[in-house]
Amino acid sequence: MSQQKKEKPKIIDHRHCVICGKAIPPDEQVCSPDCREKLELSKEREKKSKRMMLIIYVIMIVALIILFVLGPA
Ligand SMILES: [Zn+2]
After folding, report:
1. Which of 44, 48, 63, 72 is the most exposed place for a label (fewest CB within 10 A)?
2. Beta pairing partners, 23
3. Residues with CB under 5 A from ligand 1 (ion)
């Protein structure tokens, strides 16, 4: 009786390009300067949209307070 251990192929430590999903070395975030540019752009857009969300929240809260204070008495 022989027990054969089937060794699973080791998955080499790697990451995926956050833009296109290509396998890349673990110390990289993107696969190419092209994808880096896209990443920077999307980060910038995310920052802007987060700021917009914050402004909308503040406006909504202020509007709610105004409605509450000046609401039908
Ligand atoms: Zn890529």
Report:
1. 72
2. 16
3. 17, 19-20, 22, 31, 35
CA–centroid distance, residue 21 to ligand 1 (Å): 6
Q: Which residues of the chain have pLDDT under 70?
A: 1-3, 73
Prediction pTM value: 0.57
Q: Give the alpha-carbon dihedral of 31, 32, 33, 39, to 10 degrees.
A: -40
CB atoms within 10 A of CB 19: 18
Long-range contacts of 1-4 (CB under 8 A, 24+ apart): none
